[in-house]
Amino acid sequence: MPTQHHHQAIVIGGSLAGLLTARVLAEQFDRVLIVDRDQLPVTPEPRRGVPQSVQPHVLFSKGYQILEELFPGIGKAMGAAGAIRFDWGRDFQYFQQGNWMPTTETETGVESYTCTRPLLESTIRQRVRQLPNVEFLTGQRVIGLSGDRNSIQGIKLRDGEEYSAQLVVDASGRSTQTPQWLQDLGCTPPTATVIDPQLGYATRRYRIPIELQPKGKIVLISQVPPNQPRLGYLAAVEQQEWIATLGGYGQDYPPIEEQGFLKFAQSLPDPTFHNAIAQAEPCSEIRAHRATANRLYHYEDIRLPDGLIAIGDSVCALCPVYGQGMTVSAMSAILLSRWLSQPKQQRSKVLNGANFQKQLAQSNAFPWSLATGFDSKFPTTKGAIAPNWAGKLFQGYADRLVALSQKDVDVHLQFLAMAHMLKSPTSLLNPRLMLKALF
Ligand SMILES: Cc1cc2nc3c(=O)[nH]c(=O)nc-3n(C[C@H](O)[C@H](O)[C@H](O)COP(=O)(O)OP(=O)(O)OC[C@H]3O[C@@H](n4cnc5c(N)ncnc54)[C@H](O)[C@@H]3O)c2cc1C
Q1: Residue 124, domain extent
Q2: How far is Cα 154 from Cα 340, in angstroms, rounded to an integer?
Q3: Which atom of ligand 1 is the closest one to the Cα of 173?
Q4: What does the pLDDT look like over 221-234, one tens digit per residue?
């Protein structure tokens, strides 16, 4: 563990990105203060500051690996709280383009846990609370940054108080105000790229009788651009419940009343989702969520004042269908840890995050292009991007691999490893796979 030599850091937002950031900052700073506008609950509960917390949150294998690295034994703690360990090769039923992807009989090592978002967040929060130099300031809304256009000195709270810090990290998610706060200080704020699939979710929890439960622990009946905008996602979670989500692209929003919800489920291209919920016992309201646009703030392009960094959804908010957000936040925390451990940052009393934001932009590039590339295939997506020739070539190759992976479990597993960010996308360019795709 590197020696602590920086004094105080402040993290705005105590959700996934904020908690993981605080965990890595705790190694480098004497004191880390997490400030959140919510009173953070002690038990797993949805909360206002994270409106998406009632929606399903799938944790990718890479995200889970990082959690274990930062909090050894956290999987066991999640399991003890009711989360279900599962293997993505064996326990994930994935219906895509008219076919079910193959599954394996045995474990593949691409593993994770399935549970509700509040349970996951609460387990991580408990571990962060145990860090002796991390403190929480809750029920306090940050309303601005103190300092000037060259250097950020701390934060301003709504109740008039100010806290100073050597480093302020914005982890306040989609509702970030940092671009506005920078402008207030006379800085040029980052520009944003927005690609909006106009996707809506509707989610309900159920108790499903054993004989009606699907074979896998997670089932996805996938959308297929450009003409099939609907999807269904069903996952086992704690307390013997299942979380059932319907989604529709291009404002084809799933209804939030019972009959409409079931009818939408029935319209999916495979009956597995509908069969599982039709006779099941609902144990929640149906909750909608429509804030799903991809939004990227280009912090890498601005002259960033000293003492400020932005991370998580406040920088790169991704369409949730691809399940990447929490894993991207986890990867960003690891990147921050490495950046802070560099001799230059270790020696320096003043931290300028410009270089970190450039590295973060590179790290976010793949998940961003994956989400926006797929979303752009729907004609209803606002701000859709057209792929360049290299993108088209790779897409054509990837389409062949997808078709092949419906019959070939080995190809499917290679895809899984890439989708879970365990391997880089270039891993798909290996000669064996290319020969399979060609012949
Ligand atoms: C519908 C939906 C489904 C999703 N599904 C998945 C999924 O399946 N898998 C996945 O990996 N990711 C998923 N995500 C993404 C995931 O929720 C986020 O990527 C993840 O929570 C990291 O976000 P964050 O911590 O940056 O921000 P958030 O989770 O949004 O948290 C922001 C925090 O900042 C606090 N805050 C905000 N403003 C202030 C302020 N001014 N002062 C003080 N506190 C403030 C809030 O109270 C909150 O605690 C989904 C997102 C949505 C919208």
Answers
A1: 6-57+117-194+293-374
A2: 19
A3: 27
A4: 999 999 999 999 99
- The model's pLDDT over 258-305, given as tens digits with 9 standing for 90+, comes to 999 999 999 999 999 999 999 999 999 999 999 999 999 999 999 999
From 36, 145, 287, mutation site for ligand 1 pocket: most ligand atoms within 8 A of C-beta: 36
Is there a contact between 9 and 29 (Cβ–Cβ < 8 Å)?
yes
Provide residues with CB under 6 Å of ligand 1: 12-18, 35-38, 49-50, 52, 55-58, 141-142, 171-175, 177, 201, 289, 291-292, 312-314, 320, 323-327, 329
Residue 70 lies in a domain: no
Residue range 163-189, pLDDT digits in tens: 999 999 999 999 999 999 999 999 999
* 277 shares its domain with 361: no
Q: E strand or H helix at 147, and its extent?
A: strand 142-147
Sign of CA dihedral 99, 104, 109, 114: positive
Alpha carbon distance 321, 210 (integer Å) = 27
Atom of ligand 1 nearest to the CA of 35: 43
